[in-house]
Amino acid sequence: MAEFSKRENRVYVGNLSYDVKDEDLKAFFEDNAEGQSLEVAYAEVLITPNGLSKGCGIVEFTSPESAQIAIESYSDRDLLGRPVFVREDREQEARFGANPTPSRTQQFTRGAYGAGPAQVAAPGTQLFIGNLPFQVGWQDLKDLFRQAGHVVRADVQFFPDGKSKGNGIVSFSSREDAQNAIELYHNYEFYGRPIEVREDKFANSPRPARTPYQAARRAPAGPGPVPAAAAPNPQIVTKNLPYSTTNEDLVDLFETTGDVKTAEILMDVRTQRSRGVGLVEFYSTAAASVAIEKFNGYIYGGRSLEIGFSARPHNFSPTAAIKVKAE
C-alpha cells in the first residue's frame, strides 16, 4: 500500500446508487479487474452531514497506472443497478498519510473550501448559487459542482447569528467549467429545492450595501425568481440524463411521443464525456410539447428528467442521431 496519498492515484466516481457503501466501491474495482492488477488503497462514498450518500465517491489506487485503467475501463459499468462514470480526481486534499483530509466534523463547519487570502477570480469563472437548502455547507457545494469541473473555492453565506442565507459562491479554474456548471445545475433539484446557478456579477467587487429597509425585511422562504420559459418550438432540452445515455437512446425514448428529427447528447469539450444534457428536435412543435408533457419528471435510468423547450436554436453536430421521417 502507498505510504502517502497522491492525487495522480485517485479517481472520482459519479452516478453511484445511494445504497453503495465504501466496501462496495472498493470491491467494484478490485473484483472486476479481469486480469488487470488493481489494488485499492482507499475508497470513500461522500456523505451529507446527516449521513446520506451524495451519489459519488473517491477511490485511490496504489499506482497512477491503476487509476488510468479505472478511468479507461470502468465508466458505464453497472454498480448496484446504475452505470457509474469515472474520471480523474481534481482536488488536492490527501485522503490518508501526510496532510490528511479534514474530519467530517471539520468539513461541515461554517468556513469555505479554498478559504484564505481573497484571490481575484478570472472573468466568468465565479458563480452565484441561490435558493440553497439551509442545511447545505461548503463541502456539499464543492462535492456537487466538482462534477462540472475543477472547483477552486466554494462558500456558503451566513447571517451573523450563524443561520444560512440560502446562497453561496463557487469559483472554477476556467470559464468553460463555470459554463458547464450553469448548463448542468441551473434549476437542479438539490435536497428538494431547485437551485439558481448564474455568473456572479459582483465577483471581485464589494456587494452593494443593504438599505435599512432591506436589512429589516426578511425575504419569504421558497424558490427564487423563475427564468422566463422559452417559447414553444420543435427543439427540447433534457437535463439530468444518466451519463451512459447515447444519441440513439434519446431517439428511442422520444419517438414514442412523435416523429424525432435528430437528437444529441452534449459532451464536455475537454473530457469528451457526457454532461448529462441532451437536445432533441422534432418535426413539429406539437410533438415537442407532447414530449415535455409526458416525460418531464419521468424516471429514466434512476434519474428524474428535467425537460423544457430549448431557449435558443441548437446546431446539431455531424455525429448527432438522425431519424428519417416515415412517409
UniProtKB/TrEMBL annotation:
Pfam families: RRM_1. It comes from the Eukaryota. Keywords: RNA-binding. One of its GO terms (cellular component) is cytoplasm. Residues 9-91, 125-202, 234-312 form the RRM domain. InterPro entries: Nucleotide-bd_a/b_plait_sf, RBD_domain_sf, RRM_dom, RRT5_SRSF_SR. The keyword ATP-binding does not apply. This is RRM domain-containing protein. It comes from Wallemia ichthyophaga. The lineage of its organism: Eukaryota, Fungi, Dikarya, Basidiomycota, Wallemiomycotina.
